Amino acid sequence: MLSEITATRYVTPLREGGSLPGLVEADDLGTYVVKFTGAGQGRRTLVAEVVAGRLADALGLRVPRLAAVQLDPVIGLGEPDQEVQELLKASGGLNLGMDYLPGSIGFDPLAYTVDPAEAGRVVWFDALVNNVDRSWRNPNLLVWHGDLWLIDHGACLIWQHNWASAPAAAARSYDASDHVLAPFGPDLAAAHAALAPRVTEELLAACVADVPDEWLVDEPGFDDVAALRAAHTATLLRRVDGLAERIVVGERSADGPSRAPGWLTEWPHRPAERRGSEAARDEAREGGRA
Length: 290
Ligand SMILES: Nc1ncnc2c1ncn2[C@@H]1O[C@H](COP(=O)(O)OP(=O)(O)OP(=O)(O)O)[C@@H](O)[C@H]1O
Ligand SMILES: [Mg+2]
Known about the structure:
The protein is α+β, with helices and mostly antiparallel strands. It has helices spanning about 45-60, 80-90, 115-130, 165-170, 190-195, 200-210, 225-240, 260-265, 270-290; strands at about 5-15, 20-25, 30-35, 65-70, 95-100, 105, 140-145, 145-150, 175, 245-250. This is HipA-like kinase domain-containing protein.
C-alpha cells in the first residue's frame, strides 16, 4: 500500500516538468514531488506512475518512494501563479507524491557510465511497461549519491488509453533505439533471465493494488475497479513471455521527431504560455518582497 499523507504547503512548481509537478511539503515532514490529478494528462498517467514505479522497485531498480498525497486546494489560495492555483483547485483529493531527491542531477550519458547489466535491467523494465519516455532527448533518470534513479513513468502502459489495443500490445515489440541507455550495451539476455521469473501474476496484482480506487473508477468498458485492475495485471503478465527477443536496439534516430505519443508531447499549455505565467509569478514574488 502507498502511505497516505497530507499536503501542508505548496513550495514551488518544477519548471522542467510538462505536467507542472510541484514541490510539496507534507504532514510527515517529508518533501515530495507531486503530480496532480487535475493536470491535463489526466489520472491515467498517475495510474502508470504507481504500477510502473512499484514494479521497478520490486525488481530492484531505484525509484523515489511513492506516496498518496491528500490535497486540500485551500493550500493553493496564496499562489501568485494562476496556472498553479487552477491546477491545485482541480486536484482536491488524492494526488501522487514522489520522495524528493535533494541535490540529484539529471542523467547525462556523456558524464556518467552505466554498466551493461544495469542498462539491461532498465531497458528490459522499460520494454515491459512500454515506456516511451526514457530517450536521449528526455532521459527521465536522475543521478543521486552516485546512483541511477528512475523517474517519470506517466507515459508507460500506453494500452490503458485504448483498452481494445491491450491484447495486441502484449505481443508488440519495443523499439529501444532511442533509449538513453542503448549506447551502454544493455545485456538484455541477463536481465530477462534475472527479472522475468520475478514478474509473477501475484507481484503484478500487488503493484496494481497500490493504485487508489479513485483513479480507477468509472473507466469506460469496465464493470468495476476490480475488472480494470485485472486487465492491468493480465496485460503486463502477457508481455513478459519472450520479452527480451522483442526488444529492438537499432540505429538511433537523428534529430527526428520524438516517438513519444502526441498526447504526451503536445499538451497545449507549455511552453510559451507557461513562460508568461512564470514571469508573472516571479514578478508577484519580487513585488511581495519589495
Ligand atoms: N523525486 C524527484 N527528486 C528530485 N527531482 C525530481 C524528482 N522527480 C522529478 N524531479 C525533477 O522534476 C522534473 C520533472 O519531473 P517529471 O519528469 O517526473 O515530470 P513530467 O511532468 O512528467 O515531465 P515531462 O513529461 O516533461 O518529462 C524532472 O526532470 C526532475 O528534474
Ligand atoms: Mg520527465
